[in-house]
Amino acid sequence: MSGPAPARTPAADRSPAWPWLLVLVLAVAAGVLLAWRPWAASGGPRPDVTPAAATSSPSPAAEPSPPGGTTAPGAFDGATAAALFLTDAELAEAVPMADGMSLTDVDGAQWGLPVLSTVDPPSCTPAVTIVDEEPAAYLRRFASDDTVTVVQSVAVLPDAATAQEAFDALVETLGSCGTYQQSSPGTDGGAWTAGPPTTERGAVSTVVRRLTLTAEGASSPEVEVTALAGNALVTTSASGVDPGTDPADPTALAGVARSSAERALAGLG
C-alpha cells in the first residue's frame, strides 16, 4: 500500500441517500446497471433503491460472458485480457484518490442490460453497454471506498477490425448522448448528463468524458474513458460522492488508459 490514505468525508456531512448512491455509482460505472448486485453475495435483501429509465422495448436478459470466446490469433482472449486492467501504480496515477487501492475481480461479471431494463433514448444504449453485441469475453474489476469508486471493464471482440468499428460507433453515440436515462420496472430512475467527449486517435485510441449521475435526489460526478486496445475495448470509470469534486482528471485518466493498454499490447508478443 503506497501513499497516504485518501481523506474521508465525515458521515455527518453525507446526504441520507449516500449509502445507496455509492452502490448505484458502483453498478453504473460497471456499465451494466443492476446486472451485478453486490448485496446478493451476502444473502441480504435487495435494496429498494436502484437506478435506471424506461423505453417501450425491453432489453434481452444479460447472460454470463464466456471465459474464452473466439478471437483472432495473436489477439486478446478471456485468458489474456486481464493484462489490460490497471496495475496498482497505474490506478494511483489515473485516480489519485484511489492511491493505495487495488482492483478486485467481479465474480460472474455480465455484459448487457438486465431483464426489462431499458435506456431512454434507445439510441444511447451503447453509452451504458459500450458495445452493441455480446463480446467474445467480458471481464470486470473494481476498487471502492467512501470517497471514490473505480470500475474497469474489458470487452474482448473477435478481431481488431471489429473492435475498431465498435469504438467508432461508441464515439458517435457519446457525441449524440448528452442526456439519457436507464430504468428497470419497480425502481426509481437514474439519469446522466454528459459533457462532450474528447477523442484521441493513435496506436491506442481513447474517448473520455465527464458525466453527472443523478438519482434519489443526489448527484455523483463521474469521469469515464474507453480505450481501443487491439481487439478489446477497455472502459475505466471513476465516480465520486462529492458533487463539487471530479474523481479524476480526464486528461490524466485518458493518458494512463493509453499507456496501460500499450503495456498490455506489448505483452502479447
UniProtKB/TrEMBL annotation:
<protein>
    <recommendedName>
        <fullName>PknH-like extracellular domain-containing protein</fullName>
    </recommendedName>
</protein>
<keyword id="KW-1133">Transmembrane helix</keyword>
<feature type="region of interest" description="Disordered">
    <location>
        <begin position="44"/>
        <end position="74"/>
    </location>
</feature>
<dbReference type="InterPro" id="IPR026954">
    <property type="entry name" value="PknH-like_Extracell"/>
</dbReference>
<dbReference type="Pfam" id="PF14032">
    <property type="entry name" value="PknH_C"/>
</dbReference>
<keyword id="KW-0812">Transmembrane</keyword>
<feature type="region of interest" description="Disordered">
    <location>
        <begin position="181"/>
        <end position="200"/>
    </location>
</feature>
<feature type="compositionally biased region" description="Low complexity">
    <location>
        <begin position="50"/>
        <end position="60"/>
    </location>
</feature>
<feature type="transmembrane region" description="Helical">
    <location>
        <begin position="17"/>
        <end position="36"/>
    </location>
</feature>
<keyword id="KW-0472">Membrane</keyword>
<dbReference type="InterPro" id="IPR038232">
    <property type="entry name" value="PknH-like_Extracell_sf"/>
</dbReference>
<feature type="domain" description="PknH-like extracellular">
    <location>
        <begin position="79"/>
        <end position="248"/>
    </location>
</feature>
